[in-house]
Amino acid sequence: MSHEALKFDKIAGPLIEKAKQDGAETMWDRDVAMKSRCGFGDKGICCKICNMGPCRLSPVEGKGAQRGICGATADTIVARNFARMVAAGSSAHSDHARSLLHTLHMTSPDGDYQIKDEAKLLSLAKEYEVETEGRDIYDIAHEVAEIGLMEFGKPFGTQRFIKRATEGRQKLWKELGVEPRAIDREVVSIMHSTHIGCASDMESIYALTVKSALSNGWGGSMIGTDVSDIIFGTPTARQSEANLGCLEENMVNILVHGHEPGLSEMIVFASQDPEIVQLAKDNGAEGINLVGMCCTGNEVLMKHGVRLAGTFYQQELAVITGALEAVVVDVQCIFPALATLSECYHTKFIATSPKAKMEGARYIEFDEERALEIAKEIVTEAILNYKNRDRNKVLIPQEKNKSTVGFSINTIVGGLDKVVNSNVDQLGTVKPLADCIMAGVLRGAAGVVGCNNPKVAHDNSHLTIIKEMIKNDVIVVVTGCAAQAAAKAGLLQYEAKELAGRGLKEVCERVGIPPVLHMGSCVDNTRILRLVTEVAKYLGVDTPVLPVVGAAPEWMSEKAVSIGTYFVSSGVDVFLGTVPPVTGSARFTDYLTNGLEDVYGAKFTVNEDPVQLAQAMLDRIEEKRTRLGI
Ligand code: BF8
């Protein structure tokens, strides 16, 4: 069962062969069964927003159906479909933040959730104009949470965090009328305006899309990152390991997978509880081995150094090892197929969120009011399942790599202080980073983020692009599954500096960092947004001027479309390695890949060839340097 998309992966082949012998179906079987994708959907020209259709427009201009029954053109239909993708992506990220705000609201000194980063809370309180003088830290936290929750539904005003953007961005968004209002309102606006018989003007639909994306980037996701740091601690640099080789032969293996840190944090604590560890030993195991996957994996990796089992596309492979006692999931990026797949093994597939009940899963609802107690219940189920492991069905790959993770903005800025003999006043600022870029020691910076997608060879695009960047003295920051691809390939180790150009290598050596910095989960793309913004502010310019680019080489989710849109709207060029479903409208495609530059100073570039995409990124960086006169 070979597949083009797997050629790059050393460990997938044997595990997929094993799946075949075990009678287990994988995404690659389904990919083959699918034969080909729907050509209309692929181009974004299938409209099913009302029951007169679905209307499928002809992909050939001037031939066949050029309009839907209501008269909607390809431009309208493509723009509406794109907008709805962004609305869904913004919803997923922002709802994640809403959960965290509720958790912040229930923090208490003797509860399961406490305040870990008081300084960050106080700083946010100041920004929210919350009185802090002489008040209990938990009273402050609760008031901050209430104000944060109002960002979702307030009837008037705009997102508070847009004040964090450069003055240039704030002015532009105001002039264009795209300042994001309440987060939920922007999603509702899209759903309303794309209802049958509403907006048909492509550019106005895109403006609504921008508002929702900005309400995610400068709203939901940014709130998510800040609140997560406040409750669980702002990440600092730490060592860990990544890949399926992190599973252990003689331990109870538990995989946490999904996104929201409220659950996974408690599973970390539960699995370290001495009584629970003893229970594992009493049941014949040497202990408990907790590993992470997808963005939950990033959360527990960044904050606790919990080892990473793998990326999005490895979720089935992890079960096929036959060595997992439990897969514990909450929301987003979880294959429904895991339920059936787990039945081929002894693995318990445990769903926990009312937002993502999974057919065929064992359901243990997670309730923050009894967080640790429920986490212990889940870990206990996994332990008691250890005896059911069939040793004949176990195949744990050897591959794993060391990585250094935990690069919050504080970690990066603190580390880079070592690069120059800064005067003390300039310590703790982005000056060293800005100086390195201006001097050409670093040619620029690239964020490489996003998913895996069977349309392209898994991890290959991420790694090709990352390696091209660092070889050319472009420092790389990574999040999401791109970060995990880098971790598995050893690019998050200090030793990866040997793959870097002279300037970047010198920076790595002076600071003691790898050339690729793991900044967290997909919600944490806002760390990248803020870092870029701080450099722009320091240099007194707007973001589009900077030699900085973003790439989602293997993106697949609606969240990625929202992220890409908020980055472009924030003045950062975005390079995509899989084609979004927009090519059915030449006008809309041209708008995304050219027209946006006149409006936002940044645009999308799409190329499925990672070498060409990397070259386009480097060219853009050099073009920006030339324009800056550096
Ligand atoms: O939010 S990178 S596959 S895990 S969507 Fe999902 Fe994509 Fe991975 Fe996290 Ni992001």
Descriptive report:
It is built from 24 helices and 16 strands. The chain has helices spanning 12-22, 27-34, 39-43, 74-105, 118-127, 137-153, 167-176, 183-193, 202-232, 261-272, 274-282, 294-304, 315-320, 338-343, 371-384, 409-416, 431-439, 460-471, 480-488, 502-511, 525-539, 558-569, 586-600, 610-628, and strands at 46-47, 55-56, 238-242, 252-257, 288-293, 308-310, 326-329, 348-351, 362-363, 401-405, 444-448, 474-479, 516-520, 548-552, 573-576, 604-606. The chain is 48% helix and 11% strand. The chain starts with 11 loop residues before the first helix and ends with a helix. A six-stranded parallel sheet has the order 6-5-4-7-8-9. The chain has a six-stranded parallel sheet with strand order 13-12-11-14-15-16, sandwiched between helices. With 630 residues, the chain is α/β, with parallel strands linked by helices. Helix 5 (118-127) packs across helix 9 (202-232), helix 8 (183-193) packs antiparallel against helix 9 and helix 10 (261-272) packs across helix 12 (294-304). The site of FE(4)-NI(1)-S(5) CLUSTER with Oxygen has 14 residues, from helix 12, helix 19 and helix 22.
Describe the structure in brief.
The protein is of the alpha/beta class and 630 residues long. The protein has 24 helices and 16 strands. The protein is 48% helix and 11% strand.
